[in-house]
Amino acid sequence: MKIAIISYEYPPETADGGIATYIFEAVKMLQSRGHYIEVFAGSRDKDSDIVVDDIRIYRRKPVDRLDFSSAILPIFEQRHKEVNFDVAEAPEFMGEAYSILNNLPELPVVVKLHTPYSYILSLEADRSLYTKITTLFARSKSNIRHGSWFPDIVAQRERDACLMADEIVAVSKSIGNVCTKLWHLDPSKITNLPYVYTPTQELLSIPFDTETNTITYIGRLEYRKGLYDLAKAIPEVLAARKHVKFRMIGSDQKANSKENFQEYIERISGSHSNRIEFTGKIPLTDIPKYLSQTDICIFPSIWENFPFVCLESMAAARGIVGSIAGGMEEMLENNTAGLLIEPKNPKDIVQSLIKLIDNPQLRMQLGKKARERILSQYNSDRIGALQEASYLKAIQRRKTDGPRKTKI
């Protein structure tokens, strides 16, 4: 197949999060399976057309993130005339396929559900007014349009892109259910298909029977990741188990009007704060080193679709405590490859962490199961075949239905 991948996020220039990681892995997988791939990505600097590892990459700098869909359209139309792509894929985030769906009604398009930006905003609805205002200000400085009207525009773009798509792919059943309810999507157009993930040998070589007495959190230190709840749990765990320490890996964010999360955690941890290490943001290449130095990973997110840090921790055979809100329930196979906790429940965090601290055999058993699950469920052979079937489904639907209606 001739496949076009449209995504503002693509390494190295716009490697902003999980979407970029997925796209990079998917491109490698599809290329290795004999498909022709071109990538249409965003840029923070300038427009560019380059070839890397036999993949043509077209980058365009939009006025702001919401305008990426229209900024990439001219070069995409030009390349489609020359290549005649069989199918295109784009994330739902910011409705990045919106312009292509409207202007190329005969092209089969797959929209993948990662986590809609409009849903992320809704998850932050119960934060303080100050935090909401500072978040919007930060977005305005980071080239993302803001204002009271902005969430409505984004939600409409994301919804319309899904309604026009020939195939909607949900990375987890949970995000599929969320978006179906949110936007009244047709369930028959939704395919459940997790990310492809190829673990490094560094991760797979980490022994499962470590005894580092270290609990590690990896991710931005922010509200949506459950940091308020983890902050309340940390001093209780440290008070109950004197030999344990915490390591917090990730960029620090505002906790309230006066302090960032590092300051907040240190303050409420009191005399136990000397057993908490904050590394700040680290290079992705350093993750295996830090995972080899930890026994337990904690991911208490209020919502998380399909976090790569959890996949990496599973590959490293760590004991994992993860939130049930989102895709980790599927990833950890309903408590068989890790322990699941309810979001916004510090007591649940404390009990689960102490359970793994006090039961190293259980921790190791869960870690071994997690590694086995990574190798059997998310490998490129299995996911590659499923992804090809999804593309063919989109192609057949467009062929059967004829040119799409572009006005929702």
The helix-strand sequence is EHEEEHEHEHHHEHEHEHEHEHEHEHEHHH
Mean pLDDT: 91
Q: Give the oligomer, counting copies of the same chain as homo and different chains as hetero.
A: single chain
Structural class: alpha/beta
Shape: globular
Helices and strands, with pairings:
Layout: E1 2-7, H1 18-32, E2 36-42, E3 48-52, E4 55-60, H2 68-83, E5 87-91, H3 98-103, E6 109-113, H4 117-123, H5 129-141, H6 150-164, E7 167-170, H7 173-183, E8 190-192, H8 201-204, E9 214-218, H9 227-240, E10 245-249, H10 261-269, E11 276-280, H11 287-292, E12 296-299, H12 308-315, E13 319-323, H13 328-331, E14 339-341, H14 346-358, H15 360-377, H16 380-401
Parallel strand pairs: 1-2, 1-5, 2-4, 5-6, 6-7, 7-8, 9-10, 9-12, 10-11, 12-13, 13-14
Antiparallel strand pairs: 3-4
Helix pairs in contact: 4-6, 9-10, 9-14, 12-15
Structure description:
There is one protein chain. This protein is 44% helix and 17% strand. The chain contains 16 helices and 14 strands. Strands 3-4-2-1-5-6-7-8 form an eight-stranded mixed sheet, sandwiched between helices. A six-stranded parallel sheet has the order 11-10-9-12-13-14, with helices on both faces. It starts with a strand and ends in a 7-residue tail after the last helix. The radius of gyration is 22 Å and the shape is globular. β1, α1 and β2 form a beta-alpha-beta unit. About 4% of the residues have low confidence. α9 runs parallel beside α10. The protein is α/β, with parallel strands linked by helices and 408 residues long.
